[in-house]
Design goal:
The protein is an alpha/beta fold. Helix content is 38%, strand content 22%. It comes from Kribbella antiqua.
Length: 330
């Protein structure tokens, strides 16, 4: 089952959103529709369900009546989601796809050609008390494009499609942090809102004889922080940027900053993350406990680093995608 509504969004990669009829997915749909509208790109709504089977592994038997009911329910969920998306964003092309199979692999497959994937924090059947379910965590960890995880309000209602606030981004000087900063500036430019850049200055363990005075460490942190933000400030001079140097664990600093924010942006894993760990401890903690939607970003390429005449390191913008994004937002 594939549907599409008319719209003039050809040639643009879609925003993909997973729906399953849950309150969390309703919030994700509203967020994704508003995002696709701001990007002037298509919205692809994806719903996946699995057939129940009876029998032994060598002689599976499909349950006919139950399967018909499941398909009807799945089609209803997709139709309702499409109607709501058209109401929220009537100016964009909406495509609704129904798949038979597990949700996470289906969304990861769709993510290969997507610009962004949006999922609810916890779907139908999620364990009570588990803030981020297995599907959203898996998609955030493995998708090749940025992933936004939308939490419903504390009272169980869907997150509003147009919240007010700022974009919060975690900065730690790593390559992945640079990708998160770029994404945060793009989001802020589309929404015409400000950015709060958060860097957590945590003390490092070192031998007593090599201990550096706290004020020197603080000064170094501030300099690295300023340099990480410098190139994007030049590219987006109209955006109000506030910097916050927090003496706390990075995850706690970002969770605290998420109160009242429109979006928190984190790298898939930051400085010191284990090579085989696609989602680091900071991004996992923020996904679980942030008070607003969370974007998990990983770089698509290795950035080119050049040294300026003053001896400072600068992130060179050489990606055609990045230049196209900047042209669109200027």
């Amino acid at each position: 089952m594939t549907k599409a509504t008319a719209g003039n969004n050809r040639g643009r990669r879609a925003v993909v959103v997973g729906v399953d009829g849950s309150v969390s997915a309703q919030g994700a749909l509203a967020w994704a529709a508003a995002e696709a509208s701001s990007r002037h790109c298509p919205l692809r709504i994806v719903h996946a369900f699995s057939w129940p089977m009876l029998g032994n592994p060598l002689d599976m038997t499909f349950v006919g009546d139950m399967n018909n009911g499941l398909q009807s329910a799945a089609e209803w969920i997709l139709t309702e989601a499409e109607a709501h998306a058209r109401e929220v964003a009537p100016d964009i092309k909406v495509i609704a796809n129904l798949f038979v199979g597990p949700a996470a692999p289906t969304l990861l497959s769709e993510a290969q050609a997507a610009d962004l994937v949006v999922v609810g924090s916890r779907g139908v059947g999620g364990f009570r008390g588990l803030l981020v379910g297995s599907v959203s965590a898996t998609v955030a960890a493995h998708a090749p494009c940025p992933v936004v995880v939308v939490h419903p309000h504390g009272d169980g209602t869907a997150f509003p499609s147009s919240p007010t606030g700022r974009i919060v981004v975690g900065v730690d000087g790593s390559e992945i942090s640079a990708a998160a900063i770029r994404f945060a500036f793009q989001q802020a430019a589309r929404r015409h809102i400000g950015i709060t850049a958060v860097h957590a200055a945590t003390p490092t363990r070192q031998h007593p004889s090599l201990r550096v005075p706290a004020d020197i460490v603080d000064q170094i942190d501030r300099q690295l922080f300023a340099e990480a933000m410098e190139s994007k400030r030049v590219l987006f001079p109209a955006i109000d940027v506030q910097t916050r140097l927090a003496h706390a664990h990075p995850a706690q600093a970002l969770i605290d900053a998420s109160a009242g924010a429109e979006l928190v942006v984190v790298g898939s894993h930051g400085r010191g993350g284990f090579a085989g760990m696609l989602l680091g401890s900071v991004s996992q903690a923020v996904l679980q406990h942030a008070a607003c939607p969370v974007a998990v970003v990983r770089p698509h390429r290795t950035p080119s680093i050049k040294r300026s005449s003053a001896g400072r390191l600068r992130l060179a913008i050489t990606s055609p995608d990045e230049l196209a994004d900047l042209k669109e937002l200027s």
